[in-house]
Specification:
Radius of gyration: 22 Å
Number of strands: 22
Shape: globular
CATH topology of the largest domain: FAD/NAD(P)-binding domain
Strand content: 15-25%
Largest sheet: 7 strands, mixed
Low-confidence stretches: 1-8
Distance between the termini: 13 Å
CATH class of the largest domain: Alpha Beta
Helix content: 25-40%
CATH architecture of the largest domain: 3-Layer(bba) Sandwich
CATH superfamily of the largest domain: FAD/NAD(P)-binding domain
């Protein structure tokens, strides 16, 4: 594979700001190309959203606990790092959606909630005959006027109808991206999706094509030991290639000096020829001359329960929540979703994960038990909670970034470059189109 860096001057001094998976991948690649690389992470640990947390004596994923199989980029990276044997598929049990007036399992044939077979029995149970007929209009409506800046809410309502949009797409997409469909660009779901809708003649046909391009089987996969083990493996290989990884060092300023860059940090000033920014968009704005940005925040509460009543997985692998039900916007029943995790625990022991939209620093742990009881349909008591922990993540939504090199010698990677999700970040690294 030809890399942009392989044709550039070798042995530059690079500083990577941010120790999440995007920063770790950048450090690994740059060090492998012969550059002098220092990675700086303000937190006390590496991994970003791919990090472990200790709860009730268990080592569990604090952030991402699965990865999308589309494009196979993560699978190939795992193979490169010797983790191929650790890749696992989730249980086949579906996730559920809970609305104020009803709950229902998500249809088996869907892509981001878009019904690939509108008249399948499980789709009809959710939409009814009228809703399914309305969704089918998508294949007959013209697509020429669809612009690249169209939002999911605008397009789905017009093409699939209100029922499909509210009952299927909204729980899935809003649950992942933490924003209303009216504010979610279609191309944020998958690059080039708007053009695909135009070319193929509708959302359903484009979704069928995208689903077919994914790996066979489940749309997501995980790793035995948790997805955080991937970040640990990338970090280890970056160090093996010569990169220096420093935690607990915050970059407080960045300015151009003598053809390079000066970084003011909480430790000491550092000079670099080039800098890779692998930090959330609002932090990029704070370090550069970009317009200030507000950051959205998501909290994950991981809870370990002694609850034999959950052995039957009453809500499958988890629940996506429509507004007005609970403070939590989603729940993952991790021991129902991942057989490897369930088999490692005593009988009756369960792990659930709840996600919340929060204000910075807000503690939502007090909501977790009541929300889990409501969403799982099983009364749970305080004495069944063996442990819980909250982890907060900023900037959980994607945004379009036109220029990945806002200044000479400054490169944006990961969420700084508008990417979200492990699959997208790993694919960008593999394609060498962001470094």
């Amino acid at each position: 594979m030809t890399s942009e860096f392989m044709t550039s001057e070798q042995g530059k001094r690079w500083v990577v700001i941010g120790g999440g998976i995007a920063g770790l991948l950048a450090a690994r690649r740059l060090a492998g190309l012969g550059h002098e690389v220092t990675l700086l992470e303000a937190d006390g640990a590496l991994g970003g959203r791919l990090r472990h947390v200790e709860v009730a004596g268990l080592t569990l994923d604090a952030g991402a606990e699965s990865f999308a199989t589309r494009g196979d980029a993560v699978q190939r990276l795992c193979e490169e790092l010797g983790l191929a044997d650790a890749i696992v598929s989730p249980a086949a049990s579906p996730a559920w959606v809970m609305a104020p007036d009803r709950s229902y399992p998500l249809p088996a044939t869907g892509w981001w909630g878009i019904p690939l077979k509108p008249f399948a029995r499980d789709v009809l149970r959710v939409l009814g005959w009228w809703g399914s007929l309305r969704a089918c209009l998508d294949v007959a409506l013209p697509t020429r006027g669809i612009g690249d800046d169209v939002t999911v809410g605008e397009l789905a309502s017009a093409r699939l109808g209100r029922r499909a949009t509210e009952r299927l797409l909204a729980p899935v997409m809003s649950g992942v991206y933490s924003r209303p469909l009216e504010d979610l660009p279609l191309n944020a779901i998958a690059p080039g999706l708007a053009a695909d809708v135009r070319a193929r003649g509708g959302l359903i046909r484009a979704a069928r094509s995208r689903r077919a391009l994914g790996a066979p089987g489940a749309a997501v996969r995980g790793l035995v030991g948790g997805v955080a083990t991937l970040a640990q493996a990338v970090a280890a290989e970056a160090v093996d290639r010569g990169a220096t990884l420093r935690t607990g060092v915050e970059v407080t300023g960045l300015r151009a000096v003598d053809g390079g860059w000066r970084l003011e940090t909480s430790a000491e000033p550092i000079d670099a020829d080039s800098v890779a920014l692998a930090i959330p968009r609002h932090r990029v704005a704070a370090l550069t001359e970009a317009s200030p940005l507000a950051a959205s925040h998501v909290a994950i509460v991981v809870m370990v329960l002694d609850a034999p009543e959950l052995d039957a997985a009453p809500r499958g692998t988890g629940v996506l929540v429509r507004p007005g039900v609970t403070r939590a916007k989603a729940l993952t029943h991790a021991t129902a979703k991942w057989p490897w995790l369930a088999s490692s625990l005593p009988e009756g022991r369960h792990v659930v994960r709840l996600s919340y939209a929060v204000t910075p620093g807000e503690d939502v742990r007090s909501h977790a038990l009541a929300d889990a009881s409501r969403l799982l349909g099983v009364p749970l008591s305080e004495n069944q909670v063996l442990g819980l922990a909250q982890t907060e993540w900023p900037d959980a939504t994607p945004s379009f970034v036109a220029d990945k090199e806002p200044s000479p010698g400054i490169r944006l990677v990961g969420s700084a470059a508008g990417l979200m999700g492990l699959a997208a970040i790993v694919a960008a690294d593999a394609a060498d189109d962001f470094l």
